[in-house]
Design brief:
The complex is a heterodimer. Chain A is α+β, with helices and mostly antiparallel strands. Chain A has three helices and five strands; from the N terminus they run βαβααβββ. A five-stranded mixed β-sheet of chain A has the order 2-1-5-3-4. Chain A is globular, with a radius of gyration of 12 Å. Chain B is α+β, with helices and mostly antiparallel strands. In chain B, the strands form three sheets. A four-stranded mixed β-sheet of chain B has the order 1-6-8-2, with helices on one face. A three-stranded antiparallel β-sheet of chain B has the order 7-5-9. In chain B, helix 1 runs antiparallel to helix 2. Classes of the chains: A alpha+beta, B alpha+beta. The interface between A and B is medium-sized, with 26 and 33 residues.
């Protein structure tokens, strides 16, 4: 069965999508790193963002090969700049 | 030494080291207090800066900062950590980050402070956009702190 996840956008990714979040329906077992392909129709752009963006599931960083589960909240984290 | 304790603050209100909890008798085991304030500068790479807008994924920022504090307590023999980060618009001259570390001796207080700030800059989901006078009026900043090194695509023309 397909899974539903919520995607959160911040900083320049929020500006890119002009929204703070969206919901995606994905095939079961989709890995976190695959999200970029679903979010960007342009392959090159997906690749560029994926190179700089870290992923957090339910507010903890995960690696790109982490499988997503139904109901996950996935935050796309562009390079951070606190301090 | 008493057990290690910490407090993490993420807020929009004004922060400074002076706002940290006062020394309690339980802190008398500490011979060192290292305090640090990160202040918004009025210039960056030759450009005037009137302020910085900090965007924050608050629940995760708190969680990640707590993890950093806990790690610091495992790595260094420190007694108490207080760390605060402000978000929203912070004017030049105001404090964006305040930190205080208490420990029995100074070496670990300095080392722990450095570790906390280094980790915060690497991991805590906070982003900044600098503003100058002209762009402040238009609501557009000078760009995010660390822009990816490529063009942003369709929305780029608006910036």
């Amino acid at each position: 069965m397909d899974i539903n996840v919520q995607i959160l956008f911040f900083a320049n990714l929020r500006e890119r999508f002009q929204k703070t979040s969206c919901n995606l329906t994905l095939p079961p077992g989709t890995k976190a790193g695959k999200l970029f392909e679903f979010l960007f129709s342009d392959k090159e752009e997906a690749e560029q963002w994926s190179r700089f963006t870290r992923l957090a599931v339910n507010q903890s960083y995960v690696t790109a090969d982490t499988p997503l589960k139904n109901g996950d909240e996935v935050a796309l984290i562009p390079p951070v700049a606190g301090g | 030494m008493k057990p290690f304790e910490y407090e993490v603050v993420i807020c929009t209100e004004e922060i400074r080291v002076g706002k940290m909890p006062e020394q309690a008798p339980a802190d008398f085991c500490c011979g060192a207090v290292v305090s640090f304030e990160g202040v918004v500068r009025n210039e960056n790479e030759g450009k005037t800066v009137t302020g910085i807008f900090y965007e924050c994924f608050r629940p995760m920022a708190e969680k990640e900062l707590k993890k950093i504090a806990e790690e610091t307590g495992e790595k260094y023999p420190v007694h108490r950590i207080w760390v605060a980060h402000r978000y929203g618009y912070v004017k030049a001259g105001e404090v964006s980050l305040a930190l205080s570390v208490r420990s029995p001796h100074r070496e670990e207080a300095f080392a722990a402070s450095q570790y906390i700030i280094d980790q915060l800059k690497k991991r805590v989901p906070i982003w900044k956009k600098e503003y100058d006078e002209e762009r402040q009026e238009s609501g557009r900043g000078l760009g995010w702190g660390k822009e990816p090194a490529f063009r942003l695509g369709q929305n780029e023309s608006e910036n």
